[in-house]
Amino acid sequence: MSETKQYPKMRLSVLGIVLCTSFAGPVRADDLPSMGEDSSPWQIDTTYENHTVRRENVGLAKFRNTLQMEADKRVGDGWGIHGILRGSWDGVYRMNSNEYGKNAGGAVQLESTGGGGSVPYGGGLGHTAVAGAFGLVNNKFVDSYPNSPNEGFRVLGDRWHQTNGGVAFAVPVRPCDTDNRGCRDFGGYGNQKLSELEAPEFNDRLDFVRELYAKKTFSLGDGKDLFVKIGKQQVVWGRTDLFRVLDVINPVDFSRNNIYDELSDIRIPMWIAQAEYRMGASDSMQDRNFQLVWNFDKFRANNLGQCGTPNAILDAGCFFRGMANLWDNGGTVANFAGNGTLATNFGAHQIGIRNVHLPDWSLANTQLGVKFEGVTAGGLSFSLNALTYRSQLPSLHAINGAAGAVNPFTGGNGNIPGVAPVSGLIAFDMHFPRVNLIGGSMDFQLPAVGASVRMEGAYTKGEEFSNTARSELYSKNDVFRAVIGVDRPTFIPLISETSATLISGQLFYQHIFDHEYHRAALGPVGMPDWKDNFIGTVLIKAFLRNGTVSPQLIIAHDFRAVATAVAPQLEWNYTNDLKLTIGANYKMAEGRDRWNFDDCRSCNPFAPFTSYDGSQAVGQSWGLGGMEPLGRFRAGPIGAAFKENDLFVKLNYKF
């Protein structure tokens, strides 16, 4: 890339660093331009935050400095403008560069249980000496990787599990301007340079503009109004916290702090047009509204984190980057051939992620939603929702042998004489399918017990899940999700005799229709995602010293993964403008044996290297498995992060 093309990005990143580390003073309303005689002065709020995290066995995991400015202005004729600008700079990539920056990673060994315990990267089956010992002639393996040396690597999954006889491979972990191996655009992440990791808002999508929209209410007479809002914004449909059942219009940036930040801070705003017809009261309703939402922005996926960053939810960013590197450059895969006992060398275009099919902008790829919302005479608030959108999570489709994957055992197009074409050796293209959603929500009071209840549910068609019972290694399944939450302020004298303590509980449920799962000779086969799963959360939040001190405890438990997160914290509002928060995030997991799943080493009928029966049917698997790659879906976001125990300090100052 030329210096001319790089300069705008560099300039924006430097601007972000200056904004977030400078205390030169807040922006004043009179510094901003006026917009006509009927306009009002700008209302400006500016906030600085430092978020520092120390992680067990890692050291510094975050030193993020954020400056945010929120501005509102009336501009005449009833129109208003709202904007939020946010820039951040995270010093962890320079302050702890051996873990997350340009010095991260190193040389790796790959497990080979039948070949001496382990071998260095590049030393598996297929290396000339090893191949000769097994009588492999004219093989399509490689001896070495001159374009991909054994440096700057970690072993896939080593952040949360041992290989333990399963598959694994080397994953590049340095920023993409230091090491571009495996770097791909997976939908707004996955190919970021150091400057983009440090200052993530300053990119081609102008993410430093958190919100910028115009709004106006048009009176239609007879108590009816039309409210319009157009611009970059968040559209919030959900009534519950943490769980995204209806609240799926905006994608989410999980790289910021996994699942532990407020959704309002990690939703990725999109360019959206809203129109809301406010019909007012009727004989049976206190209020009625009909909303139309058109997301006309270019598609954006959830940011799952780039391998080499502190937060990569489900360790998915490492899996994607490692698989992309395998396709581009080849690599050694632990415990692959020899019935899953020998580390195996693969060349380029034999295994991995080949292409990422991001939806281009077109009218057909925009997203449209409608919602009817009302309040009954008895005070029950409810909504009915429908949305058609692109999945913000990727789906991996196996490459058919004739479509590009090369069988290293026989050469050619991956087919064995007498055997129908099969999927490539765990080789994929990435897709983002169209999903249709219908659902609803409600909240109401229970005066008899002094509690409020929040509920939402959604039924989707078109979602895709990994499925080793299918030759394409995925399936489309309908899904039902629901959440119920109960909030109750309760006087607990042991905590406070003057202020109520908020107790809030939520229970999330997910059911996958037509779920496929069976036990094969060597283990489970089919869909790793649980057919039915429950996740529960409990929040206990107290208010002491006239509300200036607020201790809280959050507990989240994934019932099928048998994984728990405990997050205590203490907020101290020293003044109206200065707040200090200290806390921790500790994970526990007892279900690790439950996370192992078919890894498709026994899906490929290339006897005797990856097959237990050369006559097996195409698409059939014997269930040989381990933690990678599908165990992450059984572990869930809590289980896959159970070794990431954090202590943190936050400092917020409002100018």
What's this model, at a glance?
The chain has 655 residues and is mainly beta. The chain contains nine helices and 31 strands.
Write the layout of secondary structure elements.
Layout: H1 3-21, E1 43-55, E2 59-76, E3 79-90, H2 92-95, H3 97-100, E4 109-112, E5 117-120, H4 128-133, E6 153-155, E7 170-172, H5 194-198, E8 209-221, E9 224-233, H6 263-266, E10 270-278, E11 285-295, H7 316-329, E12 331-336, H8 337-340, E13 342-346, E14 352-356, E15 367-376, E16 381-390, E17 395-400, E18 423-431, E19 434-446, E20 451-466, E21 474-490, E22 501-512, E23 517-519, E24 524-526, E25 532-541, E26 549-558, E27 563-573, E28 578-589, E29 597-598, E30 625-626, H9 631-639, E31 646-654
How would you describe what is shown here?
There is one protein chain. The chain is mostly beta strands and 655 residues long. Helices cover 11% and strands 41% of the residues. The protein is built from nine helices and 31 strands. The strands form seven sheets. It has an 18-stranded antiparallel barrel. Strands 14-18-17 form a three-stranded mixed beta sheet. Strand 4 and strand 5 form a beta hairpin. It starts with a helix and ends with a strand.
